[in-house]
Write a structure and sequence with these properties.
6 helices; Ribose 5-phosphate Isomerase B, Chain: A; about 150 residues; 5 strands; 5-stranded parallel beta sheet; single chain; alpha/beta; binds D-ribose
């Protein structure tokens, strides 16, 4: 499994923690920045990771900003991205099983490291359930093609 990861300055510390966790688990990770706590713009990172995941260069992506809100909104503008902002384990699992989320978004200023890593683990382990959920996800993708 290959994960694309990225954050702005507000999510930098948590991104680094998640990278360490993924390394320890033997999961391949490509860091799309940012590379310090210097202020930067989350849409730039969301776009880079979103394109890499939508283009299927990477299986999944993880994005972190201060709240997880801006970076997930921006990522969801890329066709093919289904970014889910999850701050609990139940939602993280459901976002994979029901929504086939291909990007997990987190807010470093919202939750602690321990919960964040549990969420990452649950999200990576959960599988898309398909069936009726596939029909609904296909309808989401249809909205992208025909928004009017
Ligand atoms: C940066 O200060 C902050 O606005 C950003 O990390 C994020 O929370 C935006 O949604």
């Amino acid at each position: 499994m290959q994960i694309a990861i990225g954050s702005d300055h507000g999510g930098y510390q948590l991104k680094e923690e998640i990278k360490q966790y993924l390394d320890k688990e033997g999961i391949g990770v490509k860091d799309f920045g940012t590379y310090s706590t210097e202020s930067c713009d989350y849409p730039d990172i969301a776009k880079a990771v979103g394109k890499a995941v939508a283009g299927e260069e990477y299986d999944k992506g993880i994005l972190v900003c201060g709240t997880g809100i801006g970076i997930s909104i921006a990522a969801n503008k890329i066709p093919g991205v289904r970014a889910a902002l999850c701050h609990d384990v139940f939602s993280a699992k459901a976002s994979r099983e029901h929504n086939n989320a291909n990007i997990l978004a987190l807010g470093e200023r919202v939750i602690g490291r321990g919960l964040a890593l549990e969420i990452v683990q649950a999200w990576l382990e959960a599988e898309f359930a398909g069936g009726r959920h596939e029909r609904r996800v296909n309808k989401i993708m249809e909205i992208e093609k025909n928004p009017n």
